[in-house]
Amino acid sequence: MNRVRVNAYAKLNLTLDITGAREGYHLLDSLAVTVDLCDRILAKKKKGPLSSVAMHGMGCEAIPPEKNNALRAAEAFSARFSTDGANIAVFKNIPAGAGLGGSSADAAGVLLAMAKLYQIDDMGALFALAESLGSDVKFQLTGGLARMRGRGEEIERLPFLPQMYFLAVYGGGGVSTAECYRRFDEEGKTFPPRTERALEGFASGNPAWAARLFGNHLTAAAAGLEPAVERDLKELRALSPMGCAMTGSGSAVFAAFPTAELAQWAKSRYRGGRRAVVLCAVDPADKKSRRNPYFLGGEEGK
What we know:
Radius of gyration: 18 Å
Largest sheet: 7 strands, mixed
Number of helices: 10
Distance between the termini: 27 Å
Number of domains: 2
Shape: globular
CATH topology of the largest domain: Ribosomal Protein S5, domain 2
Order of helices and strands: EEEHEHHHEEEHHHEHHEEHE
């Protein structure tokens, strides 16, 4: 096998609780789910341990190599497994600075692509590499629905997907993760935890009850950096969703609905001016879960 293609899926944080800090890092407790918005990664073997990454779309062409998580993943893979490198092309659909996990998805996708190229099936070693590349990368190696704790390295993959569709809204200048956490610390606010109770709702077969608990402790901090966060959350709440929240450190927000038709109706009513797209939860390992008739960002859901 000399050439492979991998889809790298975006994620939504249905809940995100900040639970403390350790060694200069924030600790979290979050329910995260992969959705059918994805970047496409093409990888081809090349001679020598050095890899190259070409970015296409979403304004990502100018990312410097030292800040490109996809390139870092390729180099870390070759160093760990003593393989040659790869010529990699990343075709972006996931926007940067939105909290949708695009950089982490690309890193995870590159690890999976190179594992296929060089026939590496040591998932334990891949998970260890993922942890070194970012807090969401380990989760996005497998995707689905999972509870993430600690710095994101403690992953409890859950054996079901939310039976709901999402209207996600994003665009504009985005939010810097570092600036969002800095502002959160400066504000010094505390919020009640949501993750445990939301998980209980899903586990008991009551997604509507779980969705009422969707929320994100970083919302106020992100809204202080990007006013569209609070404006769009207010507009989405007026559309009577099951629940809504911001994902990651922003600036994307989302509302959950029980059917694709209701999510599409909500999209038709949105007037906020940012991009709005209907998404559904997917398990990347299960093609049967990719059934969104309104997805336009790639191949899934056709």
